[in-house]
């Protein structure tokens, strides 16, 4: 069985992303449930160790972005991939429709507030990319954003400016020691439809779906187009996108866990060194305290 090659899912501006040409289902990287569990266990241990080093080093951090259509597997991937990481050292922020206070500020303001500290992993479940995805599909909602009318006259220019703002924002984070990891969970419309049906047949999950969610499915092709635009406009060497085939959720999670482990282990971090004499002195202090 072939090994996971993270470059196969990476878009860094060298090659254009195309939704139609990018598969939503590929051969699994696991042989059985037991093999899947074994691989997850190994990756979890490696990820936790690498995160511990990053936390102790205190100069780097990670901002991990998850974008997908509804039922793409964002929540379950976050739960499974990071289950072995010390929960005190990562944080998850979910972003829904902006509120009144959010709309009184610039479009990136509410995301700035949730950025992690150095040494931590910050996870965004839906992200500032909604400002060039959902809004681009429904540009009539721009009027609710309190943007001055002078900037709404040329819609095409507005989107290009936002792509540029986002790219500069991510580059700024990178230059300050925060790796920006962007995952787009690429699921097919048919697979999404089956997952939505499954939700409606589960009394504990029915509340997640509404008529408005089904109305959004009518804009599927438009969403695929705006995802292409956003990914191609903001993919770079330092802040690439990873487009994950997501019709097989186990495979999806395994690929994400592999990429996350690779990125964490690639950071130039080490545990701080303490002078042995200083350590011996502290041991004697403890022994003296304990009589």
Topology of this structure?
Blueprint (H helix, E strand, L loop, with lengths): L9 E2 L21 H25 L3 E8 L5 H8 L8 E5 L5 H4 L5 H4 L8 E5 L8 H4 L17 H21 L2 E9 L2 H12 L10 H7 L2 H15 L6 E5 L3 H18 L9 H14 L2
Parallel strand pairs: 2-4, 2-5, 3-4, 5-6
Antiparallel strand pairs: 1-6
Helix pairs in contact: 1-10, 2-10
Distance between termini? 59 Å
Low-confidence stretches: none
- How big a fraction of the residues is strand? 5-15%
Structural class of the helix and strand makeup? alpha/beta
The pLDDT mean sits at 94
Strand order of the largest sheet: 1-6-5-2-4-3
Shape: globular
Number of strands: 6
Q: List the helices and strands in order.
A: EHEHEHHEHHEHHHEHH
Short description:
The chain has 291 residues and is an alpha/beta fold.
Main attributes of the structure:
single chain; 291 residues; six-stranded mixed β-sheet; 11 helices; alpha/beta; 6 strands; 45% helix
């Amino acid at each position: 069985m072939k090994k996971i090659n993270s470059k196969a899912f990476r878009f860094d501006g060298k090659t254009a992303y195309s939704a139609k040409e990018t598969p939503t289902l590929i051969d699994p990287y696991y042989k059985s449930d037991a093999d899947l569990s074994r691989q997850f266990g190994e990756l979890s241990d490696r990820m936790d160790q690498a995160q511990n080093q990053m936390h102790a080093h205190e100069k780097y951090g990670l901002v991990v972005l998850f974008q997908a259509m509804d039922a793409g597997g964002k929540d379950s991937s976050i739960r499974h991939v990071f289950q072995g990481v010390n929960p005190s050292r990562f944080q998850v922020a979910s972003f829904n429709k902006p509120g009144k206070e959010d709309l009184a500020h610039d479009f990136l303001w509410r995301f700035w507030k949730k950025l992690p500290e150095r040494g931590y992993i910050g996870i965004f479940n839906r992200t500032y990319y909604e400002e060039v995805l959902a809004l681009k599909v429904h540009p009539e909602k721009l009027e609710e954003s309190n943007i001055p009318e002078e900037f709404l006259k040329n819609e095409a220019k507005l989107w290009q400016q936002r792509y540029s703002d986002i790219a500069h924002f991510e580059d700024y984070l990178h230059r300050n020691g925060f790796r920006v990891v962007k995952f787009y969970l690429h699921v097919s419309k048919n697979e999404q439809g089956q997952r939505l049906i499954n939700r409606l047949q589960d009394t504990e999950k029915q509340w997640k779906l509404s008529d408005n969610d089904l109305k959004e499915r009518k804009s599927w092709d438009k969403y695929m187009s705006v995802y292409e635009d956003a990914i191609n406009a903001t993919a770079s060497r330092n802040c690439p996108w990873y487009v994950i085939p997501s019709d097989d959720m186990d495979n999806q999670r395994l690929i994400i866990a592999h990429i996350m482990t690779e990125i964490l282990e690639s950071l130039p971090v080490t545990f701080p060194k303490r002078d042995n004499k200083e350590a011996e002195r502290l041991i004697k202090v403890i022994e003296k305290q304990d009589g």
